[in-house]
Amino acid sequence: MMREIIAIIPASGVGSRMNAPFPKQYLMLHGKTILEHTLDCFLTHPHIRKIVVAVSETDQYYPQIAQLKSDNIQLVFGGETRAESVFNALSVVDDHCWVLVHDAARPCLKRSDLDKLLQIDDPQGAILATPAIDTIKRANGTHIARTEDRSALWHALTPQFFPAGKLKTALNAAFQQGFTVTDEASAMEYAGFHPQLVAGRSDNIKITRPEDLALAEFYLMKEGT
Ligand SMILES: Nc1ccn([C@@H]2O[C@H](COP(=O)(O)OP(=O)(O)OP(=O)(O)O)[C@@H](O)[C@H]2O)c(=O)n1
Ligand SMILES: C[C@](O)(CO)[C@H](O)COP(=O)(O)O
Fold first, then answer.
1. ipTM above 0.90, yes or no
2. Contacts within 8 Å (CB) and 24+ apart, 137-146
3. Which residue's CA is minimally distant from atom 8 of ligand 1?
4. Where is this site: Transition state stabilizer (predicted)?
């Protein structure tokens, strides 16, 4: 049976680490906003029925937001945290659907990675991730406490792919218990699930700091899916 797949794009952050005059998702790269680049991957996918974008109430009057309105894009208001923005987006998604949650700040996602994730039919869900390639240190203040065994450590990326009803319940439980959720998988883990790790491309970067812009511009220029 074909699953009904909805994309959720949390795009309500302020981008404080970017130190830009406005939220980083509205910065332009190659003539488009970062948000538009991110949406392209989902708007052109035949198996994604709808895209829910969580935007902030203060940004709702941006001209770029007005241009977003289309038949398969629905806007909701984000929350104080990324997790709350995702939860608000889930409120307009039926429980039986599957949701692909992807950061607006990750515009370099390739269709090949999206398709890899969509092939997973694991009831515990799945996330794109890349294995740690640097030596990882645990800090004690400004000094090294110890070196971690990186053989089983992965960097979580997005999209993260879950049954909508399970994710809603997991996020709600995490909020109720005051558990800090920095990605959807951590809420699902808190609920006792063990989502699958799907190896993704390392160029699926999250634009976070000013130095990330030039790299994203390069990756977006590169051909290939
Ligand atoms: N309350 C929030 C916070 C973040 N996000 C979104 O979550 C994604 C990843 O978050 P991050 O990179 O941390 O973005 P910001 O929170 O905007 O950045 P910063 O932490 O530097 O302020 C971004 O697309 C951001 O817009 C969101 O929808 N709602
Ligand atoms: C969801 C995420 O991109 C996975 O690595 C990351 O947790 C977002 O963190 P941020 O501090 O909200 O950027």
1. yes
2. none
3. 103
4. 17, 24
